Amino acid sequence: MLLSVEGLTISAGGRRPILREVSLAVGKGEIVGLVGESGSGKSTLARAVLRLLPAGASASGRVLVSGEDVLAMDQGRLRSLRASQVSMIYQDPRSSLNPVRRVGDFLTERMVHTLGRSKAEARARAVELLAAVGLRDPELRLRQYPHELSGGMLQRVVVAAALAADPALLLADEATSALDVTTQAETLALLREVQAERELGMLFITHDLHLAASFCDRVHVLYAGTVVESRPAKELFEDPRHPYTAGLLACTPELDDPRPLRPIPGRPPSLDDTFAGCPFAPRCPRAEDACEEWSPRPVTVSGGSAACRLVEA
Ligand SMILES: Nc1ncnc2c1ncn2[C@@H]1O[C@H](COP(=O)(O)OP(=O)(O)OP(=O)(O)O)[C@@H](O)[C@H]1O
Q: What are the boundaries of each domain within the chain?
């Protein structure tokens, strides 16, 4: 397995952990979705794969990349993991690039510094990568500054940079959320193309369950730092088993769906809210008294699991 997260718990001073006992896996050539509302812990998980933990945080469990535990490896291995095995793509391409440096510098500096390429080699590779992500006139792009490119073009540059070291695993953290609809569709098509061509494993993070269901092979739904449902994307979409998953599907708009949107009442809990039982119970339309005391555990359902007492019953 390319990435295997096993019972990962991360605490950073709140009354409850940011992530609690999270497990998921990404295989070669597989796109795995991680979906949840703001604050559910998605970015914390992605960053933990690179051992970028919140300041002062403690972590338990294991994060294995190609069988090696990221949380336990020495600094040298960690540097090599970050330089070549795993690449992260963030939400806003403009925040990834320095506005006063040329696109070419952004692409080549990392190749020179962390991969030990010569400047000429790095430049040639940058041209090749920009062409591979569908940017015309790559030589011109290298000489330009970020403000001279559109958001969509910049996200292509960011994807090119992520591919520079031939990583096996891509972490895409809301990689298309800041883009307009057309550019989003183009960037998704590009991500899928490079992923399939290179048989990359991809952890695709989004707050949009409809998007995850259409883009990913398998989806994990995160709520208040715990995985509440984990299923093949199609099954999750057609027959959600956890009330939170069903709620997310009912409250996100889909084009041409005439049904009225039904927002989930209330708000996700903060790190200072604690609960003895199911964390979703206070917002759950189907909750019964006993849910407040049921300690969440994965219950086997078709294709995966759902952590819901009503599913277990
Ligand atoms: N360095 C930190 N110290 C303390 N708490 C943190 C730190 N980083 C994140 N958190 C808290 O951890 C929780 C999860 O944050 P995270 O950014 O992982 O969520 P997210 O699901 O990615 O949300 P968003 O979609 O808004 O980015 C939040 O309550 C956040 O306030």
A: 3-100+145-312
Q: Which of 42, 205, 220, 223 to mutate to test the pocket of ligand 1 (most atoms within 8 A of CB)?
A: 42
CA of 43 to the centre of ligand 1 (A): 7
Nearest residue (by CA) to ligand 1, atom 8, is 54
Residues contacting ligand 1 via CB (< 6 Å): 12, 18, 36, 38-44, 54-55, 207, 271
Strand partners, 309: none
Q: Which of ligand 1's atoms lies nearest the C-alpha of 41? A: 18
Q: Any idea which residue has 């997310």 for tokens?
A: 248
Hey, which bits of the chain come out as E strands? 3-11, 19-26, 31-35, 58-65, 68-69, 86-89, 169-173, 201-206, 218-223, 226-232, 299-301, 304-306
Structure confidence at residue 255 (pLDDT): 61
pTM score:
0.93
Q: Where are the beta strands (DSSP E) in 90-225?
A: 169-173, 201-206, 218-223
- CB within 8 Å of 90: residues ≥ 6 apart: 96, 158, 173, 174, 175
pLDDT of residue 260: 65
Provide block-wise average pLDDT over 10 residues at a time, the chain (313 residues): 97 90 97 94 96 94 97 95 93 87 93 90 95 94 95 92 94 89 90 95 95 96 96 96 94 67 83 90 94 94 96 84
Q: How far is the CA of 39 from the centre of ligand 1 (A)?
A: 5
Look up the CATH number of domain 3-100+145-312: 3.40.50.300
Give the largest Cα separation in the chain, rounded. 67
Place of tokens 């895409």: 172
